[in-house]
Amino acid sequence: EEDLQAFVHDRRPSLPFPLKNAFGSCAYAISPKGAKQFLECCFPLKGLAVDVPALSKFVSPTANIDEILNAYYELYSTYCAIPPLAISPNDHQTSDTINTIQLGSQPQESSPRETTRPSPGNESQELMFRIHGCNPYEGFDHTNYRIDLQGTQNDSIFQELLTKLNPRLVVEVGSWKGDSSLHMAFLIKHLQLRSVVLCVDTWLGSLEHLEESVKGWDVRPYRSHGYPQLYYQFLANVLHHNCQDRIIPLPATSSNAARWMIDQNITADLIYLDASHEEDDVYSDLCLYWRILRPGGVLFGDDWAAYWYGVICAVNRFTKEHKLNLQVVKEKWFLQKPTH
After folding, report:
1. Domain 123-336 is classified in which CATH homologous superfamily?
2. Cα–Cα distance between 49 and 62 in angstroms, integer?
């Protein structure tokens, strides 16, 4: 009980607990919201003979933890990570390739809704002017900034998705300094695709940047008079790598950007979600950007790891609610939108 209380109030990165009987001998993780409900409904564990009204309707007040969890499984399965969280690198199976997502053809057009897409040949320019009314790179002196990239988004998954989906529009939600968007832009040029990468970010940092909870991701060095200047570093990185014809920045919150795209009837073939790692934020992003994804398209994200329990819980919840096929490859997760 003390561990759960600390988890709820102190934002511990994960809460593994063994369930040896009904659930098998493995470790699950529960989100803060789930832990709070767990506390309200199922405790105190010490002295279960005490009458607990929430429990008495379903199980005996002398029930053990497995019996309690069985009674409440439908509720808590929303918040529990499945497959189990990896407490060590080998605690659950992963694969090196995408096996279950069908990538043999381009995503289908949405129907009956008419979609708005950039015309062939000038996709980047048209979308850029719809957003900004001008070219945001024009007149910006990137030589005042050194190249400053952060991240390791260069695995083969990006190339596999780009090659097999051949997307016209890629949306990246959470771009930071542009490492993953530049990697996709390089691949797009190498593969001779006409794809455009739309990068959605506030460039103000997320919770882990403000809390400095992840070493090396402090936003403070990029502030000027208290306001982060990461947007300009992003522009400079794009210009240094000559990818301004393939990358379009959209400075907005993920929710505002999604609602604008929905209002504009803009759809995407491939969406990469790597913004906030908080459970409620991730779930909200999934709901909004799923509406933007075209049938047959793929929504995927990063950080399927024990530290980012919020991502895992939100993705599992969304997957179950929509009865989707979730695949995890190393630390990346994938959902393909059904074509019918």
Report:
1. Vaccinia Virus protein VP39 (3.40.50.150)
2. 5
